[in-house]
Amino acid sequence: MVGKILKTNIAICIIAAGASKRMGTPKQLLKWGNQNLVGHALQQAQRVSEHVFVVLGAHYDRIAPTIASAHIINNKDWEHGMGSSIASGIKHITKTGQFTHILIMLADQPFLDGAYVNNMVDTLEKKPFGIIATQYENKFGVPAVFSSAYFSELMQLNQDFGARKLLQKYSDDIVGLSPGDRAMDIDTIEEYHRLKKYK
Q: Which of 23, 194, 9 is nearest to 107 (CA)?
């Protein structure tokens, strides 16, 4: 019964609101296979849930037209950092009251694909902790699935470290998953060209 509820009541929130200052160009629009990065993230998320939301901010006018099949959230306070974008997404998603869990992922981690995200959901079904998070050595990060018990605190985030402190605070209620060698994000044009070779 738990598995059935989770499969229908989980939303995925893709954070793609940053300005890509180190990149020098909107990294959300960089080509990745036959998609751009945000399109690739959306495609992977839709392998897991039909309820996918994308939070945009910087470069909204350029990125939004490339997204055809998801709910778009425009975080006008994106300059306040990733925490602000997460809060904006959670506030919007929880208005319906239909979701028991929200999975937060980033648009610039293309190797953490649908199979990995689905593994997070499967783990949640088998181990009903409050949070399933990605474990990076001795710390937790996103992608991460949060139960509704944490929605209120997620909506209060407003700084540039995202959900990091929340994950530290509730480490006793977390199951960590190792991403192996897939834990690579894209912050510079050099990283993009290097990682693209491994696609």
A: 23
Instruction: Tell me the per-residue pLDDT of 135-164, one tens digit each, with 9 for 90 and over.
Output: 998 899 999 999 999 999 999 998 777 888
Residue range 72-117, pLDDT digits in tens: 999 999 999 999 999 999 999 999 888 999 999 999 999 999 999 9
Instruction: For the chain, report the end-to-end CA distance as a whole number of angstroms.
Output: 37
Domain boundaries, the chain: 2-196
Confidence of residue 127 (pLDDT cuts 50, 70, 90): confident
Cα–Cα distance between 118 and 34 in angstroms, integer?
22
Fold classified for 2-196: Spore Coat Polysaccharide Biosynthesis Protein SpsA; Chain A (3.90.550)
| Long-range contacts (CB closer than 8 Å, 24 or more residues apart) made by 74-80 | 75/17, 78/17, 78/18, 78/19, 79/19, 80/158, 80/159, 80/160
Residues whose CB falls within 8 Å of the CB of residue 17, separated by 6 or more in sequence, listed in order: 55, 56, 57, 58, 75, 78, 82, 85, 88
Report the mean per-residue pLDDT for the chain: 90
HSE toward the beta carbon, residue 118, CA cutoff 13 A: 10
